[in-house]
Design a protein that fits this description.
Blueprint lengths: L1 H19 L4 H12 L5 H13 L5 H5 L1 H86 L3 H8 L4 E6 L2 E6 L4 H20 L5 H40 L5 H17 L3 H28 L16 H27 L9 H14 L5 H30 L3 H13 L4 H22 L6 H5 L2 H29 L12 H18 L10 H46 L11 H17 L6 H29 L2 H14 L12 H14 L13 H27 L9 H4 L4 H8 L2
Antiparallel strand pairs: 1-2
Length: 745
C-alpha cells in the first residue's frame, strides 16, 4: 500500500513536471504506456504483492536501489530454483544414461536380428514349400475320401452283403420249426450303396478315368448280382418257412409271422429291378402256398382243426352243411390269401419302400421344383401307375394259382355229395350255396384281370361247375318227377278237390321258398362296395333261379291237373244218357288245383312271378267257365243266334233288321222271354269251385254276360232304324232291369 501510494505520488509529480516540459517522442511513448497500464490487473497485483515482500521502506535510497533490489531478488529466486532442481537434474541424468544404454541394446539386437534373418531365409523358404505340400496332400486326401465314399464300400457293408442266410431248423416246444436269418437293414443300406456307386461310375465314364469306371462298375455289378440272388434265395426260403409255420402250427399269422411278411414284401419290392428273380420268387410263393393250402384243406377235411374242431367230412351225411362248411373254409382261406398277396405285392406302407424307390421319390420331389422337368414328373407318375397295375395283376394271378389247389378236392366231394341222391330241397340249398360262394370268390379273386387260362382252371370256375352240376341235378330230378306225374295224372275225386300230389309238390316248393328267403351266408373279408355288388348279383341270380325252380316244380303239377280234367271230360262224354256232373266240372277241378297252389305261394315275395302266372291262369279259366255256360244258356233259349245277327247288322250299318226273317219281332221276343224264364232261379252258385272269390267272379261274369246280351238285343229292337215300329216294346214283356233284378245285380 505504501508502494502504491509512493508510486502514485511519483507519477503525479512527474506528470506535473512533464506538463511544464516537453518530452522526447520515445520517452513520451514509454510514459504513455506506463500511464496507460492498469494497476488493478491480476498480474500487476501479483507483481506488486511480490514486491511488497522485500520492499519494505519507501524512502529515497530505497527507491533508488529498487532496480537492484528487484534484480537481486530475482537472482535469489533463481538460485533457490537451481538448488531445488539439482535432485531432479540428477534423476534426469540417470534416466538419460539408461536410455543411452537401452539404445545401445536395441542397436545390438537389430544387428543380431539382421545377422539371423540372413541365416533363416532358406528355412522360411522350406517352411513355405512344406505348407504348400501339406495343402496339396490335404486336397488329395479329400479327393480320396470323396472317392472312397462315392465309389467304395465299407467293410461292414461288404460283410452285410456276404452274410450267410442259410436255412436252419430249431426245436420249439417239441416241434421242429425252420428258421432263417433275417435280412438286416444294413443289407438294404449296403445294396443301396452298391446301386449308388454303380450309378456314380457312369460319371467316371464321361471323364478320363474310363478304365477305372468300367472296373468299378464291373465290381459293383457283381456285388448287385450276388446281393439280389441272395435276396431271392432268402425270399424263397422265407415264404416256404412262413407257409409251413402258418398252416402246420397255427391258423393265423402271429406277430412274428407278420413281421416276416413285411420283410418279404420289402425284399420283393427290391427285387422288382430284377424281373427274372422277382418272377422266380412269385412262382415260389404260389407253389409253396398252393401245396401248403392243399395239405391244410385235406387235414381240415379228414383230421379237423387244431383247436378241437371236428373234421368237415364228419358231417358228410348232411350234404348241405358238408358243402357249406367246405366253402366256408375256402372262403376264409381266400380272404387270408388275398391279405397275404396284398401285403406282399401291394403294400403302401412307407417303411416297406425300397431304397431305390425312395431315391426315385426324392428325385421326383426335387424335379417337381423345376418347371423344366414337369414332363419327366408326369412320365414318372404314369410309370408308377403302370407299375401298380402290373403288381395288382401279379397279386391276383398269384391268388388264382394258390387257390387252384383246392379246385379238384372240392369238385370231387361236391360231386360225391350230389351223387348221394339228396332230395329237391337239399339240392336247391346246395345250388344256392354254390352260386353264392361263386360270386363271393369271384369278387375276392377279381378274375376280371386274370388271364383266361388261369380263370378257366381256377377255383371259381370249379365252384361254378359244381353249381351248374347241382342245378342240373335239381332239374333232372324235377323233370323225372314231373314226367312221372304227367304220365300218370291223378283222377279227379268226388268233390273235385285238388289231388294229394298237388299238396306234396306245393310243400316242396314252399320249403325251397323258405330256404331261399332265409339269410345268405355272410361274405366276410369284403369291402362295402364288394359286398353290395355281390348282394345285387346274388339277388338277381336268386330271382332267376327261383323262377326256374318253381316252374320245374309247379308246371308239371298244373299239366297233370289239366290232363286229369281232360280225363273227366272224356269220362262224362262216354256216359250213356249224359253226364251226371255239371258242365263246368273239369274247369272247376282245374280252378281248385290252381287255387290250392296260388293261396300258399302268394305269401312269399320270391314266388311273385309264379303267383302272377297262377292268377292269370285262374282268371282265364274262370272267364272261360262263365262265358261257356252263358253261351250255353243263350244258345238254349235261341238268343245266341239273334245276338250274332244283331251284331252283324250293327257292324254293317246297312239293311233293316225287321226285314230279316230270322229276326222277326216274335222270334226276338220269344228268345228274350226264354232267357228270362231260364234265369228265374238266378245264376248258378258254382259250388264245385272251392274258392269263394273265384266263385263270385264267375257268377258276376256269368250274370253280366247274360244281362249284356239281353240289353244289347233289347236296345237294337227299340232302335227306330230297326223297322219294328213304335209298339215294339209292347211285344217284349220284360225290360233289362228285370233280368238284373233276378240276378241281384
Amino acid at each position: 500500500r505504501l508502494l502504491c501510494k509512493t508510486t502514485t505520488a511519483f507519477f503525479q509529480n512527474r506528470d506535473l513536471n512533464m506538463s511544464s516540459t516537453t518530452l522526447a517522442p520515445g520517452l513520451a511513448r514509454k510514459v504513455k504506456k506506463v500511464l496507460d497500464t492498469r494497476l488493478d490487473g491480476r498480474e500487476t497485483v501479483a507483481c506488486l504483492k511480490a514486491l511488497s515482500e522485500f520492499y519494505i521502506e519507501n524512502d529515497q535510497s530505497a527507491r533508488r536501489g529498487l532496480r537492484f533490489a528487484i534484480e537481486r531478488r530475482g537472482l535469489d529466486i533463481n538460485n533457490e530454483f537451481i538448488h531445488a532442481s539439482e535432485s531432479t537434474q540428477g534423476t534426469l541424468k540417470a534416466v538419460d544414461d539408461k536410455l543411452d544404454a537401452l539404445t545401445q541394446c536395441v542397436d545390438s539386437i537389430e544387428e543380431a536380428l539382421e545377422k539371423k534373418s540372413q541365416s533363416t531365409v532358406a528355412l522360411l523358404r522350406e517352411t513355405e514349400s512344406a505348407k504348400n505340400d501339406l495343402a496339396r496332400i490335404q486336397s488329395r486326401s479329400k479327393v480320396i475320401d470323396t472317392f472312397l465314399r462315392d465309389y467304395q464300400l465299407k467293410e461292414s457293408e461288404l460283410n452285410a452283403l456276404k452274410e450267410d442266410i442259410d436255412e436252419t431248423t430249431e426245436i420249439v416246444g417239441g416241434v421242429s420249426a425252420s428258421t432263417s436269418r433275417v435280412i438286416t437293414p444294413l443289407f438294404y443300406k449296403a445294396l443301396r450303396r452298391v446301386k449308388q456307386i454303380h450309378k456314380n461310375c457312369a460319371h467316371l465314364l464321361r471323364t478320363q478315368h474310363q478304365r477305372s469306371g468300367l472296373e468299378l462298375m464291373d465290381v459293383m455289378s457283381g456285388h448287385m448280382d450276388q446281393a439280389h440272388e441272395k435276396l431271392c434265395r432268402w425270399v424263397q426260403s422265407e415264404v416256404r418257412i412262413a407257409a409251413e409255420n402258418e398252416f402246420d402250427n397255427t391258423s393265423s399269422f402271429s406277430a412274428d409271422a407278420e413281421e416276416r411278411l413285411e420283410q418279404v414284401a420289402k425284399a420283393l419290392r427290391v427285387l422288382r429291378s430284377r424281373p427274372t428273380l422277382h418272377q422266380y420268387c412269385v412262382e415260389e410263393i404260389a407253389r409253396t402256398r398252393h401245396n401248403a393250402l392243399f395239405r391244410h384243406f385235406i387235414a381240415a377235411l379228414t383230421r379237423g382243426g387244431q383247436s378241437g374242431k371236428a373234421p368237415i367230412e364228419a358231417r358228410a351225411h348232411d350234404p348241405v352243411r358238408y358243402i357249406s362248411d367246405m366253402l366256408g373254409w375256402i372262403h376264409q382261406a381266400v380272404a387270408n390269401e388275398r391279405d397275404v398277396c396284398n401285403a406282399l405285392f401291394l403294400s403302401t406302407d412307407a417303411s416297406l419302400l425300397s431304397d431305390e424307390e425312395d431315391e426315385k421319390d426324392a428325385n421326383n420331389t426335387s424335379s417337381t421344383r423345376d418347371d423344366a422337368n414337369s414332363g419327366s414328373v408326369k412320365e414318372s407318375a404314369d410309370t408308377s401307375g403302370e407299375l401298380y397295375d402290373n403288381m395288382e395283376g401279379i397279386a391276383k394271378d398269384t391268388m388264382v394259382k394258390i387257390m387252384d389247389g383246392l379246385s379238384r378236392p372240392l369238385r370231387v366231394r361236391v360231386e360225391q355229395a350230389l351223387a348221394g341222391t339228396p332230395d329237391a330241397l337239399e339240392t336247391y340249398k346246395i345250388t344256392g350255396v354254390l352260386h353264392f360262394y361263386s360270386g363271393v370268390l369271384e369278387q375276392l379273386l377279381s378274375l376280371t384281370t386274370a388271364s383266361p387260362s388261369e380263370a378257366e382252371k381256377g377255383l371259381v370256375e370249379a365252384v361254378k361247375v359244381c353249381a351248374k352240376a347241382a342245378q342240373t341235378s335239381f332239374n333232372d330230378d324235377a323233370i323225372v318227377k314231373g314226367a312221372a306225374i304227367t304220365r300218370n295224372p291223378p283222377v279227379p275225386q268226388t268233390g273235385l278237390h285238388a289231388p294229394p300230389i298237388v299238396q306234396e309238390r306245393l310243400e316242396v316248393a314252399i320249403s325251397i321258398l323258405k330256404a331261399a328267403s332265409s339269410d345268405v351266408p355272410s361274405s366276410g373279408g369284403l369291402s362295402g362296395r364288394e359286398q353290395s355288388g355281390i348282394n345285387e348279383h346274388g339277388n338277381a341270380g336268386a330271382d332267376k333261379i327261383i323262377v326256374k325252380v318253381l316252374d320245374a316244380i309247379i308246371d308239371p303239377v298244373i299239366e297233370a291237373c289239366e290232363l286229369g280234367a281232360n280225363k273227366l271230360i272224356e269220362v262224362n262224354s262216354t256216359i250213356i244218357g249224359g253226364s251226371k256232373t255239371v258242365p263246368w266240372a273239369a274247369d272247376a277241378y282245374v280252378l281248385n288245383c290252381l287255387g290250392a297252389l296260388h293261396t300258399p305261394l302268394k305269401q312269399y315275395p320270391l314266388a311273385q312271378a309264379k303267383t302272377q302266372d297262377l292268377t292269370r291262369r285262374i282268371s282265364n279259366t274262370a272267364t272261360d267257365v262263365a262265358d261257356n255256360y252263358a253261351e250255353s244258356i243263350l244258345n238254349a233259349c235261341g238268343l245266341l243266334d239273334v245276338l250274332e245277327r244283331v251284331s252283324l247288322y250293327q257292324e254293317r250299318s246297312s239293311g233293316v233288321m225287321s226285314h230279316d226273317p230270322s229276326l222277326t219281332l216274335d222270334i226276338i221276343s220269344k228268345a228274350l222271354q226264354g232267357l228270362v224264364e231260364s234265369a228265374k232261379d238266378g245264376a248258378p252258385d258254382f259250388q264245385e269251385v272251392q274258392s269263394p272269390r273265384v266263385r263270385l267272379d264267375i257268377q258276376n261274369r256269368f250274370s253280366n254276360r247274360l244281362i249284356e246280351a239281353y240289353t244289347r238285343v233289347y236296345i237294337a229292337v227299340l232302335n227306330p232304324n230297326a223297322g219294328y215300329g213304335s209298339n215294339a216294346r209292347d211285344h217284349i214283356k220284360h225290360a233289362p232291369d228285370a233280368l238284373s233284378t233276378i240276378f241281384g245285380m
